[in-house]
Amino acid sequence: MLCMATNIEVTLAFRLEQPTDILLQFEAADIPEQQILSATCSLDEADHMARVPAQDDIGLRMWLNANCRYDVHYAASVAVERLLPDIASLARLDSHDLPGEAVQYLFDSRYIPADRFQNFVTEEFGSSTGGAQVLAMSDWIGSHLSYVPGVSNANTTGMDTFVERQGVCRDYAHVMIMLARAAGIPARYVSLYDPGVTPQDFHAVAEVFLADPGVKDGGAWHLVDPTGMADPAHSVKIGVGRDAADVSFLTSFGNCEMLEQSVSVTRSEDE
Amino acid sequence: MLCMATNIEVTLAFRLEQPTDILLQFEAADIPEQQILSATCSLDEADHMARVPAQDDIGLRMWLNANCRYDVHYAASVAVERLLPDIASLARLDSHDLPGEAVQYLFDSRYIPADRFQNFVTEEFGSSTGGAQVLAMSDWIGSHLSYVPGVSNANTTGMDTFVERQGVCRDYAHVMIMLARAAGIPARYVSLYDPGVTPQDFHAVAEVFLADPGVKDGGAWHLVDPTGMADPAHSVKIGVGRDAADVSFLTSFGNCEMLEQSVSVTRSEDE
Amino acid sequence: MLCMATNIEVTLAFRLEQPTDILLQFEAADIPEQQILSATCSLDEADHMARVPAQDDIGLRMWLNANCRYDVHYAASVAVERLLPDIASLARLDSHDLPGEAVQYLFDSRYIPADRFQNFVTEEFGSSTGGAQVLAMSDWIGSHLSYVPGVSNANTTGMDTFVERQGVCRDYAHVMIMLARAAGIPARYVSLYDPGVTPQDFHAVAEVFLADPGVKDGGAWHLVDPTGMADPAHSVKIGVGRDAADVSFLTSFGNCEMLEQSVSVTRSEDE
Amino acid sequence: MLCMATNIEVTLAFRLEQPTDILLQFEAADIPEQQILSATCSLDEADHMARVPAQDDIGLRMWLNANCRYDVHYAASVAVERLLPDIASLARLDSHDLPGEAVQYLFDSRYIPADRFQNFVTEEFGSSTGGAQVLAMSDWIGSHLSYVPGVSNANTTGMDTFVERQGVCRDYAHVMIMLARAAGIPARYVSLYDPGVTPQDFHAVAEVFLADPGVKDGGAWHLVDPTGMADPAHSVKIGVGRDAADVSFLTSFGNCEMLEQSVSVTRSEDE
């Protein structure tokens, strides 16, 4: 039997001046919506290596303690089996029906002061609700923001991006999550691989919690990419979090010089 | 047999202009370190009421959909059975030994841009480590901040408080968590009741993840109150979160006028 | 001969705990566009009192060194003789034709990070220019902001107000100035009295530097009030500055408790 | 007669995509404390060129409207005749004795939220006053900040630098001004040339308004460089402002690509 697969190849190399703790998160998450057909992860030897569950039990974080130059090669082939309902038709859940695990995604986070956007959201998006409202927000972002590498940095919040009207995928996702939360819709940040991303790199999108069309009164997470580059039918999730503060592919607890970072994502037929 | 108990009485009243979703979190958490001897929660009738697990499964959040005036009366008696190691003697865990659930508490959150404080923390607290370092931070906060009600608001971050040198328990806790995270120590925000709080009110402190003296290579959360008002031997936890964004006693998804808020916490012998 | 006058009555009272330097700016400025028919200023005795020229030589600032309770009573009658061109018809000056004294009003100031709004201004107001563009901005503010006392404080910037969509006259003026500067139009903050302000109080508006219809190639300052409450034909200027940081009616260099603040402004026929 | 001179050579080149207004400020200011022995300014032809007085009438700003590549060569030789009192011995002026033109330099500006630092300044520097207090602040900055190019950007405020403890001359000057203003001492930002700056570039320092030792009850501006690189006996002032927002050497009202920027400053004997 043939199936289409998303194929990922990642090379990372970095240099540490002294023994340093490093947290990595770059592997395709082993979750029901994506079947990992094959995966190889080649790592240099480290003084310590451990994998721990990542946020919401989606994917793993990898702890290293390493020194000098460190190289990572990762290749995986993943069959994406995600249900893809028509977002526009999805109902909003009443806040009081939200399950406990979705509640934290209503709240403000490091880069997302959503509370401050309630008036804007009511004025601009108050005429629709649920999935239609989310799509209106995503369209608004697509038409009001410009994709400009290099204008944002580690301190840039969704509020900054909203004002300056430019940024990269991280910033687009922040604004999307900010507007959704301001409307009372739980929203989280997703790090993923997608073949449509240009230039190829790690990518970030939003995920909103709306009705699950397959479960009466149930809710589910649905991918939304305001940059329009990712196709949820092909996207392979790495991990999730409140915002970019939670899902870096590399966090270093000490000086770390990035030497190489390459990502290649393609679609292919797999047997 | 006699045991000492912490006794809590809370009265809340608020008015809603129309049917509004409300999220409450004020009940003593049912967790091993505190035995709930008795608890009564008297609530006005609501169109919807559900309890869901709160963050890290500590305590419950209560969803309401209510209208008009709404009254809450809560009384509980709780025997605190918390282990109280000498914080100063607790070792720091290597970052690479942290369990998955502690990792999110290393990261920046809404009110806590900890990354920006790494230089300050290295300079000011670099000569100690682990619990001794945490106590040095707590002492620094106690001697450099003034407890001044009314100077902070819903936008005030730990960075604001660090600069302005004044605030209330929420702000003290934010600075404590910020300094700990900047030193690579996981830290979270804890909402609790304590008889030593003056004037009596909901209280907030920090909790840091350091070695568990009872478990080889294990880690545990330890309470630290930079205001010095709470005594961990008496404190009754309500819930935890990344920072104040996560653990309000009341979050309203629409206009809500607070009419009454009274908290009384005492110590007594209980049979 | 009869002329219409704007009549001002102000009462201020404040208490100082110890000898404290106070800077006051509340008197009608003695400038060509407004003729001061009468003015009385009754001040308690102070250890020191001096008037110094205020920003751009518009009005005076008054230094006091006072102690205990201090009372100010001010009454003035002012004939406003301001030229009132049709703003919509005023041309924009090329930046390179701006006189030296207008240049500082192109730059960012404490509450006005105008540079960050260039993309927004180009997108939203790029189809008009000069006075027509300024009026489009003022209209946009009038229809997108709500006048809500109490939501802003001494840290609230024009960027905050732009996002939160609410504020008072100070905040409306900040957004107006921010948008104008982002379009390369010098704009300053004006403190003034106007009978149309409800409830009566000190008022703040913007002033933009556009062509002077009476002087070939010349430029002049023109009042614009995005709240719509002030009528430039009746407004009596107190002072100007980069933003609210520059033109408080009272700045205290030490603790100061405000006891009374009342402002009454009316129109009358004067002989 | 021989005198020592500070010799300046500057080359700037930039490219404009279309006719663009440019504001330049790089010439040695023609003010009593520095005698311009010789100066040549070679500019490409522009469609418009005008010089206007800069802030506080110190130096000139130059308006250009240019297109394509534009080259600037500037050379000057300047004899510095600045009075250099012992800063430590200078008294503070009472606020209420400050002249009108110094008052604006007490207030917050774009990058300098000085009001928020009053508690810190009282605690850390409350035991001294006047020039001694200023030097204590400058020493504190020198020992608590690290000079690190590349960590600050156009949004970085003095508050950011205070927290992050690193920056360049612009950031050091901002913190110096912020602390002085928080103590009620007028302080402004000075752009200048100095042979001691490494690597050679435009430089920025602070200037504080304290007693003028030569004038009874008078005040004067005194240079203070918390980086320690500039020597006021050799520094040649270009211009002043509230903070870096006011004194860029180049402000472009449209896209502008910097092609070359070189500054050379030396000391020599001049006849």
Automatic annotation (TrEMBL), chains A, B, C, D:
It comes from Paraurantiacibacter namhicola. Pfam families: Transglut_core (PF01841). PANTHER family: BLL5557 PROTEIN (PTHR33490:SF12), BLR5614 PROTEIN-RELATED (PTHR33490). It comes from the Bacteria. This is Transglutaminase-like superfamily protein. InterPro entries: Papain-like_cys_pep_sf, Transglutaminase-like. Residues 161-228 form the Transglutaminase-like domain. SUPFAM superfamilies: Cysteine proteinases.
